[in-house]
Amino acid sequence: LRILIVGAGSTGGYFGGRLAEAGRDVTFLVRKGRAAQLRQDGLRIVSPHGDVSLAPQLVTADAIGGPYDAVLLTVKAYSLAAALEDLAPAIGPETMILPVLNGMRHMDLLVGRFGTGAVLGCVCKVATMLEEDGRIRQLAPVQELSYGEINGSLSARMQRLDDTMRGAGFDARLSTTIERDMWEKWVMLASLGGITCLMRGHLGEVNAAPGGRDFILALLAEVVAAVTALGHPPGETFLPAIRAGFTAPTSTQTSSMFRDLQKGAPVEADQILGDLVARGSGAGVAMPLLSAAYAQLCIYQKRLGGQ
Ligand SMILES: NC(=O)c1ccc[n+]([C@@H]2O[C@H](COP(=O)([O-])OP(=O)(O)OC[C@H]3O[C@@H](n4cnc5c(N)ncnc54)[C@H](OP(=O)(O)O)[C@@H]3O)[C@@H](O)[C@H]2O)c1
Where do the DSSP E strands lie in 115-269? Predict the structure, then answer.
């Protein structure tokens, strides 16, 4: 399969780099700044699974030159609209689009633009960051990329995709429940992001604060009530596991949203929190805690933009 990785940042650079290292046919769609950096220094990954340094195949939006078989979309939510314009020439009638973005709003945008048949479900579990010098650093061993047809079917194209993804140095997983997987990941991220950003600390610190444990469980309950009202309840084993993880007194877990907040970087608040608040409220679920988390991130974003 010819694969186009849209973005060579933390996730695109990591999974695309592993695929390229394993000899797959991978091209990165990049913008000028990142293109210059990658041409000069190569694509470099620092990882507990082994470092990578290679000269990647690059393309810019003005020179895509026809459809690819698969597109791994790895931009942040706030870059999505512009990226859709840029990647459009890479989408043909047979192209499969795998978005690693969190939440569900991007799915509506992608389906609206390219049609239901083009868009697969995808969940990416990894902790990587892009360093100032352009290296991608993997912060924890987890490195799972799951994908599947939204309707759960095991189509011939999914088998072809799976053959390409497997054996490339990360955990590739063909899922027949990818839509539920995506909603469960959204529950986890919205809760974790809401808790850590509103309380400005990791889970252990929040648990140790007066009323912290109750706050964690109440915010999680709001999120679960919302997705349940929306017809996407988490699976049976998911909730006990997430409750135990969130209330572990020794946990130092935080969220990428909180890490971005601490760095003074933009956060994906609209996609991860705002969209869930809107959908949940629309379904009649009261969400005061998640709304508060979202509101303060909106203030942060506004100040960041100097408005
Ligand atoms: N990082 C993680 O551990 C992780 C884990 C799971 C899921 N996710 C999700 O994955 C998504 C991507 O996150 P990330 O951490 O990989 O972000 P990131 O490190 O900021 O990388 C995104 C890359 O996209 C590039 N980009 C933006 N617009 C583009 C365009 N039009 N054409 C080509 N490249 C473009 C940016 O490059 P330039 O701005 O330099 O051009 C940037 O390098 C997010 O939705 C995030 O929530 C991240």
Answer: 121-130, 136-148, 171-174
